[in-house]
Amino acid sequence: MRISTKGRYALRILLDLAQQDTKKPVSLQSIADRQHISEKYLEGIVSRLSAAQLVRSIRGKYGGYTLSRAPSDYTILDILLATEDSMAIIASLDEGVATETAVTDIAVGFWAGLQNYIHDYLQSVTLEDILQGTYAKLDDKYDHYYGLI
């Protein structure tokens, strides 16, 4: 499973909104400026977040976006499910893949278990946890991991 830029930026957008005055809508331009991300690119991400009812859009001169609920009510899994095309760790666990493909893969149970662990972790962490730094962090054994196997 690879989290795309859309998913990572969606998290940044929601964290940015959570850090602002929640009584006033926040313009997409101000988020783009703070996050150093193209406003045009953010528009596509915000439309997905809006469709998933994770943000509220307010129109007008003083319009913008607000969170639709408290930061503690957003799980990272909810955010990624709204923005990612697939959250499957391997193709045979993705929706729309023929059942016989999954059945013939002897290791599919292993991959499904790993996917479940990842989903459980993402479900256990909220925006509030990230803002407060209270989520589970990497162990020391990963301090020198550079992706080389």
TrEMBL record:
GO terms for molecular function: DNA binding; DNA-binding transcription factor activity. Gene3D superfamilies: Winged helix-like DNA-binding domain superfamily/Winged helix DNA-binding domain (1.10.10.10). Pfam families: Rrf2. Keywords: DNA-binding. GO terms for cellular component: cytosol. NCBIfam families: rrf2_super. This is Rrf2 family transcriptional regulator. The lineage of its organism: Bacteria, Bacillati, Bacillota, Negativicutes, Veillonellales.
